[in-house]
Amino acid sequence: MNASVQEQPFPFQPASRLSAIGVSEILKITGLAIELKRQGRDVIVLGAGEPDFGTPDHVKEAAKRAMEAGDTKYTALDGTPELKAAIRAKFKRENGLDFAQDEITVSAGAKQVLFNAMMATLEVNDEVIIPTPYWVSYGDIVQIMGGKPVLVPCREANGFRLTAEDLVRAITPRTRWVMLNSPSNPSGAAYSEAGYRPILDVLMDHPHVWLMVDDIYEHIIYDGFRFVTPAAIEPSLRDRTLTINGVSKAYAMTGWRIGYAGGPRTLIRAMAVVQSQSTSCPSSISQAAAIAALNGPTEIVMERCRSFQARRDLVVSALNEMEGISCRIPEGAFYTFANCAGLIGRTTPDGEPINSDTDFTEYLLHSVGVAVVPGAAFGLASYFRISYATSALELEEACRRIALATSRLS
Fold first, then answer.
1. Tell me, what's the pLDDT at 26?
2. Distance of CA 142 to the CA centre of its chain
3. Which positions ≥6 away from 72 have C-beta within 8 Å?
């Protein structure tokens, strides 16, 4: 063989389906911040959506018992009967939803539930309506499957919530799904029963459209807000609604990777086919831990929620005292989504213009060592997201630095 040919290997070419997909902006910013910290910079990272609390002790004990009992083998494809029973009991007890065992699926995180559902249902150019601001993975998962994300901006004046009028305008014959997330990442906005009702009325008029609901922040709500989920409000939509949840946020179990959903058995069966050819079953140990979380005491969840609310109030109050920034009070989750439009057009001390929310967040990182995520990453510009799932001391210092950086703009 010719030596010159050997020296010129055929270049790697990624699949075309990845052409419009990139690594999450959140992961990029967090990675850069961690690298700056490694270099000795004093950086406060407020980017990751991960509780700073530890997994509750009774959950960790359940995992230990499972290991000691030898429960370390493959389990049923999409969840053990015991975990499915715990999920069914949770849905009935907390949401008023009654699912059969074959209407429940368990995956390696709520993200895999979303992925399985999209792979099991989307044809090329099928449309998925996604209100923005939105968790960035929603749109990317749709695109990987060959679908088309239809992004519908939700105005701050409406609490970052989808309106019935905007939904009607977005629906076409190609619409397959509408995705709703309440409380929301990144805005913390949540839908009450009255807020959901006009949207559900629209869906009742369009029987070809299915509803995917991400309830992962269900237990992180404030000020007496009452959480509701659509399938419980409108039972006639139950047979075309997938209700998604998990243990990551409420129980501080992000690394255990357990998400679950309840929905029509035909959909659940199709999702199982997808999972059978990817991860197969979730971790047996994690499933045992999830049973303990779902069946266990709720006091620790409520206690942590009160702590999150105090942090929310700290951050919102501090942001609203800064010139050029305003921040609505979120109903849930552990994020603020602040408006920085009043800073666009200003100039940094180094003479660099602030032309966008991305410019502003880069300025914060490099000038005062605070890592936050621009709203553009979530589909709605001139905002930035702070994750307040960290200590009050760090949040106070971060807000002091943001105020200092903002005051230096001219």
1. 79
2. 15
3. 66, 284, 285
